[in-house]
Amino acid sequence: MKITKEIKIGIVVVLAIAIFVIGFNFLKGKNLFSINRTFFAVYENINGLQESNPVIINGFQIGQVIKSTLMPNNMGKILVEISITNNDLKIPADSKAKIVSTDFLGAKAIELIPGSSKEEIQVKDTLIGLVEYSISKEVGNEVIAMKNKTEHLITSMDSIASSFNQILNEKTKNNLITSFEGINNILNSFENSSNNIDKLIESENGKVVSILKNVESISSNIQLNNKALSNVIKNFEIISDSLAKSNLTATINNVNKTLAQTSIFIEKINKGEGSAGLLFKDDSLYKNVASASLNLDLLLQDLKVNPTKYINVSVFGGKKEKVK
């Protein structure tokens, strides 16, 4: 069978179109000869996500975004269809599809975050959609926060400056100047005192040296008389041992016993018990002694006046009659 020129041209055109379609899809990340799994994710804001953006896991591309569709019945949410080319990858049912930025220029991708569920997600099921703020937006938020803090700081500094201006009036300034002058005078006084102390130490240097020599001499004497001091301490130890070995406790007990008996004796005297008690407590003895003393005094007076009444004296040895 003879192939005409027209058939050859048609075959070439068909092959060119096929190669173009395959190449175009290859550049878009689509593999027409592989069986892909399709999943969905719902977002409130896709943050610039476009078709053919990659789907990655741990930085490795496993698929791409097929298309994005607005869902008018769900308060403007967006349904994103993604294709996973890796058929061996097991995706848990609670996995998340997070829109992330891949560079500083704002290129987007969907990062697949595997969950912990033991159940595997089925084809055309819906993943949990998350959105990560772009780097520029995060930087903008940080700049806005820093701007607000700076404005607050400037306002605070302005308030502090105003407060200082109110505090530092003319009277306060004068008080501060006076205070600094007082501090300066105190420092000058300290300096003068230090100079006086230096002069005193310099003038008394000889005495200090003499005192140190005396201390050194005392230390030398103690060192030289160390043996004598040791003997003194030893003698004290001997005396202490002798006192410890002596029957000092029995002696003290006897003294205490004697004192107790003396106390009992004095108590009996105070109560008027016994002869001694009667002597101290009963005044009859005193009255008898006083009466006897009075009678003796009268007798002596009568003896002095009338001696012959009691004493008979005979010069010639004769006897007189007794006075009756």
Short structural summary:
The chain is an alpha/beta fold and 324 residues long.
| Name given to the CATH architecture of the domain at 35-132 | Beta Barrel
- Largest sheet, spatial ordering of strands: 1-4-3-2-6-5-7
Kindly provide the radius of gyration, computed on alpha-carbon positions and rounded to a whole number of angstroms. 66 Å
**Ends: how far apart?**
221 Å
Query: Looking at the structure, what is the overall shape?
Result: elongated
In CATH terms, what is the fold-level topology of the domain at 35-132?
Elongation Factor Tu (Ef-tu), domain 3
Structural class by secondary-structure content: alpha/beta
Indicate the percent of residues in helices.
Answer: 55-70%
Unreliable runs = none
The CATH class of the domain at 35-132: Mainly Beta
List the helices and strands and how they pair.
Layout: H1 5-27, E1 37-43, E2 54-57, E3 60-71, E4 77-84, E5 96-101, E6 108-113, E7 126-131, H2 135-167, H3 170-203, H4 205-224, H5 226-245, H6 248-271, H7 274-281, H8 284-305
Parallel strand pairs: 1-7, 2-6, 5-7
Antiparallel strand pairs: 1-4, 2-3, 3-4, 5-6
Explain how this protein is built.
By secondary structure, the protein is of the alpha/beta class. Among the domains are: 1-33; 35-132, Elongation Factor Tu (Ef-tu), domain 3 (Beta Barrel), CATH 2.40.30; 204-246; 247-289. It is 57% helix and 15% strand. It is built from eight helices and seven strands, in the order αβββββββααααααα. A seven-stranded mixed beta barrel has the order 1-4-3-2-6-5-7. Helix 6 (248-271) packs across helix 7 (274-281).
